[in-house]
């Protein structure tokens, strides 16, 4: 209380700035990011940047029969360490948006709006603005409005150059249009959608391998055609707009989607399969990009561990009736998404299960269908 005297009190006043928090730097960061955020909008957004809450006009939902809201939240893991080491911060936003909005489209929902959160040891306005510019650019690509966010300065908890990012998004889908296990049937074909690289999963493994091998981020790697750091910082491919286009394509009755993130291909596919079916995936249908084989060879990483950790060149899978596979592939290729037939779904009883090869039945608390990955990748 004013006028009170306490034993051990300091002789000089301590301000918020002296404690390591620069409010004015935060304000400057907001000014620098405004132009980027303005581009990541939709007609339904109400108000502007700087409010206590982002507002979104949901009156269009009244015209839906049974609107179902879908929400997701995520971060980008230790990939931020690569961005910090290279002092390049304008791509990490694509990783954040991809991890969040592409989980929403898995159930067939259209992502509507997103918010972000950045925690840092010291607010450097230009760095914060660069991060947000990437988030906004990815939101614009995905057709998602960036309606707000928060930047928090945490001196003493994070070093001045350290930061972490997280985000959350909301989407909507008609109840009758929800994708998932309830639609999948024996005879469906599994399409693979190529990734842009590592995306945002498994970086603790990758960074450990690189460190153990003594490779510097500025090392030129002929197989990559660029430096190691540039390869590791490759932005996550954001699929939501392309997948929504596929969902809305006449002649395509999409049954299920799976986002290949932490846990790998087999486990994430099993999560969207009903019990009693079996998906057989064939490695001979694709060659993983060089970054995956490089990590495997440098770290002598066992294949099982590698495939449970990294996407191996497949960022999404889509399940649809066999007779629609060609149309699905043409639609994706026209959108610039490399895709191919990866496998097929059969009834589990009597399925062509290969002896001695692991069968995955689910992950993250979901007991789904059975998935087995067989064969060998073609040589690059």
From TrEMBL:
The keyword GTP-binding does not apply. It catalyses: 2-formamido-N(1)-(5-O-phospho-beta-D-ribosyl)acetamidine + ATP = 5-amino-1-(5-phospho-beta-D-ribosyl)imidazole + ADP + phosphate + H(+). Its main location: cytoplasm. GO terms for cellular component: cytosol. GO terms for molecular function: ATP binding; phosphoribosylamine-glycine ligase activity; phosphoribosylformylglycinamidine cyclo-ligase activity. Its EC number is 6.3.3.1. It is found in: Cytoplasm. The keyword Membrane does not apply. Residues 66-173 form the PurM-like N-terminal domain. Residues 186-348 form the PurM-like C-terminal domain. One of its GO terms (biological process) is adenine biosynthetic process. CDD domains: PurM. Belongs to the AIR synthase family. This is Phosphoribosylformylglycinamidine cyclo-ligase.
């Amino acid at each position: 209380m004013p006028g009170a005297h306490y034993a051990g009190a300091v002789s000089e006043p301590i301000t918020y700035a002296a404690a390591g928090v620069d409010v004015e730097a935060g304000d400057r960061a907001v000014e620098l990011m405004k132009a980027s955020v303005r581009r990541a909008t939709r007609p339904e957004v109400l108000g502007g940047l700087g409010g206590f809450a982002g507002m979104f006009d949901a009156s269009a939902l009244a015209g839906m029969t049974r609107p179902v809201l879908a929400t997701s939240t995520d971060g980008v893991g230790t990939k931020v360490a690569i961005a910090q080491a290279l002092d390049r911060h304008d791509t990490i936003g694509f990783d954040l948006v991809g991890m969040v909005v592409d989980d929403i489209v898995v159930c067939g929902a259209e992502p509507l709006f997103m918010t972000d959160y950045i925690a840092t040891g010291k607010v450097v306005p230009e760095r914060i603005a660069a991060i947000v510019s990437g988030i906004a650019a990815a939101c614009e690509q995905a057709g998602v409005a960036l309606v707000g966010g928060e930047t928090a300065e945490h001196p003493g908890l994070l070093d001045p150059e350290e930061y972490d990012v997280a985000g959350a998004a909301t989407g909507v889908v008609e109840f009758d249009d929800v994708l998932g296990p309830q639609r999948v049937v024996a005879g469906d074909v599994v399409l693979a959608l190529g990734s842009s690289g590592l995306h945002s999963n498994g970086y603790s493994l990758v960074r450990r391998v690189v460190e153990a091998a003594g490779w510097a981020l500025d090392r030129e790697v002929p197989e990559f055609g660029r430096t190691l750091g540039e390869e590791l910082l490759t932005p996550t491919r954001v699929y939501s707009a392309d997948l929504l286009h596929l969902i809305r394509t006449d002649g395509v009755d999409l049954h299920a989607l799976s986002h290949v993130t932490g846990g790998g291909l087999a486990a994430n596919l099993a999560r969207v399969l009903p019990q009693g079916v079996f998906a057989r995936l064939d490695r001979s249908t694709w060659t993983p990009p060089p970054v995956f084989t490089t990590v495997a060879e440098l770290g002598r990483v066992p294949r099982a561990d590698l495939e449970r950790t990294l996407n191996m060149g497949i960022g999404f899978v889509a399940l649809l009736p066999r007779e629609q596979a060609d149309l699905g592939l043409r639609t994706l290729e026209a959108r610039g998404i490399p895709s191919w037939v990866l496998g097929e779904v059969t009834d589990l009883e009597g399925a062509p299960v290969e002896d001695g090869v692991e069968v995955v039945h689910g992950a993250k608390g979901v007991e789904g269908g059975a998935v087995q990955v067989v064969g060998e990748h073609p040589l690059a």
